[in-house]
Amino acid sequence: MDTSLEVQKKQIYTNEEAYQASLVYFKGDDLAARVWLNKYALKDSEGNIYEKSPEDMHRRIASEIARIEKQYPNPLSETEVYDLIKNFTYIIPQGSPMTGIGNPYQVASLSNCFVIGNNGESDSYGGIMKIDQEQVQLMKRRGGVGHDLSHIRPKGSPVKNSALTSTGLVPFMERYSNSTREVAQDGRRGALMLSVSINHPDAEDFIDAKLEQGKITGANVSVRIDDGFMQAVKSGEAYTQKYPTFSPSPVVSKKIDAVDIWKKIVHNAWQSAEPGILFWDTIIRESLPDCYADLGYKTISTNPCGEIPLCPYDSCRLLAINLFSYVQNPFTSEAYFDFDLFKEHVGYAQRMMDDIIDLELEKVDAILAKIDEDPEEEEIKRIERNLWLEIRKKAKEGRRTGVGITAEGDMLAALGIRYGSKEGNEFSVNVHKTLALAAYRSSVEMAKERGAFTIFEAQREVNNPFVQRIKEADEALFRDMQKYGRRNIALLTIAPTGTTSLMAQTTSGIEPVFMPVYKRRRKVNPNDKDVRVDFVDEVGDSWEEYIVFHHKFKQWMEVNGIDTSVNYSNEELDKIIEQSPYYKATSNDVDWLSKVEMQGAIQKWVDHSISVTINIPNDATEDLVNQLYLKAWEVGCKGVTVYRDGSRSGVLIANDEKKEKEVEEMDVTFKRVFPTKRPQVLEADVVRFQNNKEKWIAFIGKIDEQPYEIFTGLADDEDGILLPRWVNDGFIIKNRDEKGNSRYDFQYVNPRGYKTTIEGLSYRFNPEFWNYAKLFSGTLRHGLEIDNIVELINGLQLDNESINTWKNGVARALKRYIPDGTTASGQKCGNCGGTHLMYQEGCLTCKDCGSSKCG
User: Fold this and answer.
1) How far apart are CA 283 and CA 146, in angstroms?
2) Is 61 helix (H, G, I), strand (E, B) or coil?
3) Separation of alpha carbons 432 and 544, rounded Å
4) What is the pLDDT of residues 824-838, one digit of tens each?
5) 158 exposed, middle or buried (CB, 10 Å; 0-12, 13-18, 19+)?
6) What three-state secondary structure class fits 84?
7) Which of 278, 310, 342 is the last residue of a domain?
8) Ribonucleotide reductase large subunit N-terminal domain location, by residue (predicted)?
9) Which of 349, 501, 552 is nearest to 434 (CA)?
10) What is the pLDDT of residues 45-78, one digit of tens each?
11) Is residue 389 part of a domain?
12) pLDDT digits (tens, 9 = 90+) for 458-475
């Protein structure tokens, strides 16, 4: 490895140094800078930062890929690799590769996703627990996991143990879901996909599990639907479920009304965005790895986002190509797509992906060495070791890759083509066809230089529909592939590119732009000179509103001589948008059926699958969802998910004996650890807020800079020093003002002899304030993560207006302790309707469109 890189890695940067450098790198884009710093900058377990900006990251990645290239003929140089990946312009390694390549501080995989499963029809407790442990072992190494439950015997089946009958699928769904929630991944939570065949007799319970049970909160769920079921839906005929599924001599067999089950799937998807659908016969029919099913490559499930169907113990790494960067003279009448440069770079991207497999094999060897070094008994380590040996075998044998794209929406706009139009769909299909042929050509050329994947056999694949399309489009490529093989068993995907697109400053994946323009707020001091106050929130803080342009929309404005510094009115913005190529091309404008047709047509040139969500408005009907799902099957989509604006995965729970209220599910994490005995001295932060027209204070008692408990009181109007009315027995509260300057010591005084606890006392000693604050402090002391506590507080709908405003102030006080980059679950963006929100300096920021909500 380059010695200069080694020296560079040893230098430690402060968070502020790295943030400021990254802010310059991203030309003032605060969100992109913080996303990179929080998720991808090289750090050790102590939080030390070893990269100042993405430039350091790209040099780290380039050095490692070039090191692997040197092992093969005609290697790419480090400079050539760096030029391809720098500035997120052309080729972008995603997620785990971006974080893990050249990272000496984590023993982790470079794979974004895995699928696991037992050999044979194992539904014993031993087999189920083995999968549970494997799932956890993978998640702790940063991977997302998928597995299928169709092998588990249905509810009520006889078993030879003390239970006498089987419990069915749902309890094990809960087990796997809970395991996912227990595993931390450097600020992320594990991701899990659970699937089941519609042919399984418990499929209806699976479909209802998240909606009715309210416990499967740590997993995405999708139903594997076969063509026979879809035909039964269209014809109105009965459908026979079996266990084992599709068995010629099943142990359990029952006929169901296919239309009724289909309506349930549609209703639940309309209601809660799940289950997703996997059109399984299409997946298997099109799958090149399934040509080797008898050799261990039978596809059984997908990764959590559905874009990579996999066999047991296979994995995949992801990389995206920025389509916008191949538009020359964007947003002008001379704009064109540089297909020659695009094909050249796709070839390099496929090569780099193959290099990353070698880097992954090194990582797996490091994981195996770590397992061997652990002092635990060999029997304890056996499952984990065997798991990684299986993964290593599949990665080395099949060399599966995941080359994809981002910026489809911006590419079309830059060419002056409206997303969702017939012209747009046709152009997109041409781009993806070009990508597929160039990637397969690269893999064939690598087979000549590096050797084909070890089990390649031309005759196995010759009748595969995807191979036949290659033959029809490029006869010479087909002949060479038959003769030399290819380096990789499967190559292509289209994955979600949320943070990737934020850093590339483009639209995400194959999606259209959410909004070309939106407004954000920044907190201001109303007493400052020349400040403009546009909004005062419910706790009295002042905010200035300002316009944020989608990056490429702003580029269109600049190309067309439209001033981007003006604070336009909404009416003026509407007129500007009407002149742009983004007009009628946002996620709210696109015709949904047209989008499904586009996905099906592009799918013909993607050998894995496509992760895409069809966003529909809140007032969309169940019939529309039905049409979209049927259309997706008819046009050849491999999977589809629908999200109706405002739908949510909630449950009905008893709030009290009188009524029930719908509440959001919470992703609860207990990670912070505190002493069991309360310390005698606490340092506290002072946070001011308003309760109706009264000025209040919150004291946040801390241990190791982490909130430990909270109590509140009225402000002293005379000198501005904020005094609590009661303090816990024997406590000295050391605290400072908001700016961290003055310090005040408050000694406990108990003139009335009250024996009270620290939390939540108002000067009125209102029992309701006290009870709710006691709840909040209790959850703090037990280590519940701050974002979960804020969700808990926000979810309380209290009858007393004073208590509601008080609890809003408490939530605001605690928000400042949520680490930047923490994902907010169960909430959606008010601007674009997206559900990918994160906390940033106490505000909620949308990772899809960049809008923020503070207060």
Assistant:
1) 16
2) helix
3) 43
4) 655 666 555 566 676
5) exposed
6) helix
7) 310
8) 29-93
9) 349
10) 888 999 999 999 999 999 999 999 999 999 999 9
11) no
12) 999 999 999 999 999 999
Do the domain assignments include residue 377?
no
Q: What is the dihedral of CA 756, 759, 763, 765, to 10 degrees?
A: -60
CA neighbours closer than 13 Å in the CB half-sphere of residue 49? 21
Spatial contact of 252 and 201, defined as CB atoms under 8 Å apart:
yes
Average pLDDT score over the chain: 82
Q: Which range marks the domain in which residue 205 is found?
A: 113-310
Rounded Cα distance, 543 and 534, in Å = 6
Name the CA dihedral angle for 700, 705, 708, 713, rounded to a multiple of 10 degrees: -10
Amino acid type, 817: Y
Q: The tokens of 344 are what?
A: 């050249």
Overall domain count for the chain: 2
- What percentage of the chain reaches a pLDDT higher than 90? 54
179 domain-assigned: yes
CATH of the domain at 166: 3.20.70.20
Directed axis angle between helix 786-794 and helix 767-781, to 10°? 150
Q: Taking a C-beta distance cutoff of 8 angstroms, is the pair 50, 43 a contact?
A: yes
Instruction: Tell me whether residue 580 is in a domain.
Output: no
Asked if residue 418 lies in contact with residue 581, where contact means CB atoms within 8 angstroms, the answer is: yes
**In the Cβ-directed half-sphere of 388, how many Cα atoms lie within 13 Å?**
29
Q: In what order do the strands lie in the sheet with 402-406?
A: 91-93, 318-322, 402-406
Helix count and strand count (H, E) for the chain: 27, 33
> What sign does the dihedral 773-778-781-787 (CA atoms) show?
negative
Q: Is 100 helix (H, G, I), strand (E, B) or coil?
A: helix
Residues in the chain: 855
Q: Which of 287, 310, 333 is the last residue of a domain?
A: 310
Q: DSSP for 339-393?
A: HHHHHHHHHHHHHHHHHHHHHHHHHHHHHHHHHHHS-S-HHHHHHHHHHHHHHHH
Judge if the upstream peptide bond of residue 312 is cis by omega within 30 degrees of 0: no
Place of tokens 């979209």: 628
Cα distances from 395 to residues 118, 310, 455, in angstroms, run: 18, 12, 12
